[in-house]
Amino acid sequence: MFALxxxxxxxxxxxxxxxxxxVSAQGNDGSPxxxxxxxxxxxxxxxxxxxxxxxxxxxxxxCGGVTINKSxxxxxxxxxxxxxAGPGFPGINIETNQTDTVVLRGLDIDMTPTTNxxxxxxxxxxxxxxxxxDVKVGHARVSSGAxxxxxxxxxxxxxxxxxxxxxxxxxxxxxxxxxxxxxxRSSGGVGERNFHTHDA
Length: 200
Fold this sequence. Notes:
Blueprint: H1 2-15, E1 18-23, H2 42-47, E2 49-57, E3 61-62, E4 66-68, E5 72-75, E6 81-83, E7 92-94, E8 101-105, E9 107-110, E10 122-124, E11 129-133, E12 136-138, E13 150-152, E14 158-169, E15 180-182, E16 189-199
Parallel strand pairs: 1-2, 2-5, 3-6, 4-7, 5-8, 6-9, 7-10, 8-11, 9-12, 10-13, 11-14, 12-14, 13-15, 14-16
């Protein structure tokens, strides 16, 4: 009976995860991230969303950075959803499996250096399918060294990158870097690069 109760308790916990979570500038990270009780940050919303689910924005505002470790869609088209660097992290850090798909849509990733330092807008170290649509990545820039708006540096496996209707502006550094930098390490690679971007 105890084992059954434990199993049922676990099942109830698993079902508490959302397939569609919501964030808002007026949200609270102690909320369940529903449309009527949204969270305030992508970090919490992603953690409360099942793999393969979606995070959307109810209002414009600052949503913070996030590490993504599963298939997910973040879609904030129609509002101004801003992402900035966290302490020691890129704006969006992707650590997934090769079978995962990450879709980022309608985001303004502003990497203007702060006291936290200067970091990439989107950093991909693990293989996955990454789809960027209507995304702006700007100001991932340093006065010495190199930095990129989007950096794909897979060490194993094959990544697939598809970018459409997106803008990369004021990224890089005197020693290299770019709006988009594809530089696989070791046995890593990028199997498809399909870009429709504006880089300034």
